[in-house]
Specification:
With 108 residues, the chain is mainly α. It has five helices and no strands.
Length: 108
């Protein structure tokens, strides 16, 4: 294959990729697809507020985790993320944010 042919082929591929990207962007605009911002990372936020160096330290500080969670806006996080955290720290499986808040407010 000659260098000139390789150059032309590379240019053609670049143009086609640019056109494809433009088509995808336009299709997203036409269909109303919106890119949703990912919810904040729950485990890292709790780890930082509790003062642990590692996420794996959280189960050793359940009272502090409860206190921190009561001060946080849990609506910013998905129910699935909260369920994962509650299982990891407290070994309980709760189905709704309402149950989780009741669990946090409950004295042991």
């Amino acid at each position: 294959m000659s260098p000139y042919f390789s150059f032309l082929l590379g240019g053609l591929i670049g143009i086609l990729m640019t056109l494809l990207i433009e088509i995808v962007i336009q299709a997203n605009r036409d269909t109303g697809i919106q890119i949703v911002e990912k919810p904040p990372e729950l485990f890292g936020a709790v780890r930082q507020k509790v003062g642990c160096e590692f996420i794996s330290d959280l189960p050793y500080h359940p009272k502090m985790v409860k206190k921190v969670l009561l001060q946080m806006d849990l609506e910013k996080y998905t129910t699935l993320d909260l369920q994962d955290l509650f299982w990891y720290v407290f070994k309980v499986h709760l189905h709704s944010k309402k149950e989780m808040i009741e669990f946090l407010k409950k004295e042991e």
